Structure formats: structure tokens, C-alpha cells
Amino acid sequence: MERMVLEMKNPFHKPVMVKEVINLLRPRPNGIYVDATLGLGGHTEAILEWSYSRTKVIGFDRDSEALSLAKNRLSRFGSQVVFVNENFSQIDRVLKELGIDRVDGIVADLGMSSFQIEGSGRGFSFLRDEPLDMRMDPSLSFTARDLVNEMDEEELSKILRVYGEERWAKKISREIVKSRREKPIETALQLAEIVSGAIPKKFHPPGIHPATRTFQALRISVNNELGNLEVFLEKAVSTLSVGGRIVVISFHSLEDRLVKNAFRELASPCICPPEMPRCGCGKKGVLKILTRFPLRPSVEEIRENPRARSAKLRGGERIQHGSGGSFQEEVEFR
Question: What are the two backbone dihedrals, phi and then psi, of residue 41, each rounded to the nearest 5 degrees?
């Protein structure tokens, strides 16, 4: 409780790429929007301030502590915000339970919230001496500690290689197994030191901590982030009204690849062989791609918020069946 009170006294961090989100999402008065990753509520706050009128936002977050902080931040909007303590992969079920058939827009910021890194005490940061947890949803039973202390070397190496794209996965896994034989690996700082020691100093990546990829891989595995994202992307566009828009911000190549491929398939789902002169499968696109290439944060934003440096934003618009393919829309930023 003390940790949460301290966090609420601090200024809330500005959400990543908020200007780009608003210009693509184009929130309108009396619309219904989904913030699929509510976090501390920054994007929801921007949507409600921009639209002025009785716009409603359904805010999802699997982290009950972060949800409590967002409620505090957004309290002035009253019933305009519906807080949902669920994973965004359940978007279709939750909207149905709320009696909502279609929404006018969806935003998903796939990065960790400032609270999770700085205030949750769950070992998301390799710079803090915190229990090695990494659960975004505290009700999950399996933690990062369980992974590094119980998984065999080969499985651990695969997780680091696939989810962290870590070239030193085998050596790091070997050092983790060696260290845990002497004593269990209990804290984030302890793990970070093991990883740093496993990678030769001359190969430490410039500008980022050498444990960054390992922590990313463990966090993704513990929270099933890529699996949940894939399910969410399959369901989200079907909840949009025609003309409704979806905006997704990712922070590493695995996420961005999933978003790019999902949007591409929804825009042109034809499964005919390339050699066929015309489509014979009859499948129609339901999404117009608004960003042929991902938008990136401005130099000014990166200067103010270094965590934004790896952000990539992609957007799409729900269309009538067969009313158009993908294209690049020029977005005029206000």
C-alpha cells in the first residue's frame, strides 16, 4: 500500500506517441473506444480530453494494482471509463458482457507501464534488487523465478533465443544453471549480474544493459505475451464498426512482426496461389492499412522519454467487405 501511495503522488508519465495515436484514432464525441492496455491511463485520458463530449472508454488491464492507479488518474471522467481487470485477449467476451456490439476505435500500447518498471516491486527492471517475479497479472501462478530455477538448460536457452533474440542464449543459460546449483536465483539484480558476466564485455551491446534481452524473453514467457497478442489481433478488428480504427504500439521486433502480419492478412486475406491470375477463394479484406511503414516517435519525444526510442506504431481502419485494399494514409499531425 505504501508503494502505491508513493507512486500516486508522483507525476504521471506521458503516454508514448500520444499525438500520433490521437491523429490516427480520430476520437469523436459520443464514441466508444477500447484502451486494450490501460496502464496508468495516459492514452485514455488523451482520448477523453480530445473528444470533449460523452465519449466512453473501456479500459483493459490484467494488472489490478495498475488499474487502481489508473482509476485515481481518471476519476474526474466518472462513468465515461469502464475499468476491466482482464487480459485484452478477452476483448470480444468482455464487450459482449457489457452489451456493446461495436466500438469506434482501439488502442493497444504493448510496452510495460512506468508503474510496473518502477513501482510494482516485481523484478521487471534489471537495475532493482526486487524479487524475480515479472508477472503482469499477480494472480498467475508461474513466475520468472520458477523459470530460471526449474527449467532445464536447453529449454531456457530456447526461450532466450526465441523470445529475446539473444545471440548468447546458450552461454547465458549455462551460467544460470551453474549459479542456481550454488544457490537459488531470487532477485532481478542477481539475475542481471549473472547475465552480464556470461556475455564477454567487448560484446556488451552499446546503449542498453546486457541483460535487456534476457529480461524481455522471461517476461514474454511468463505472461504469454505473444500468444495473447495474437489472439487479441484476431478478435479486435471484428469488434470495430465500419470506419473504426485500431492503433497498436509495439516495442520489439517480435511484437511488431505479429502486428504487421496480422494487419496484412486482414487487409488482403486471399489464400489463392500466387500464380493464379485472379482471386478464386472469395475472401475479402476487412482492414485498410493506414501505416505502410510504422510510425516512430519524434526526436523530441525520445529526448524527453528515452523509453520511447524503440516504439513502432501501426494503424488500420475497418472497411466494408471488398471496399478497398491496403494503402498508406498521410497523417497530418496537429
Answer: 90, 10
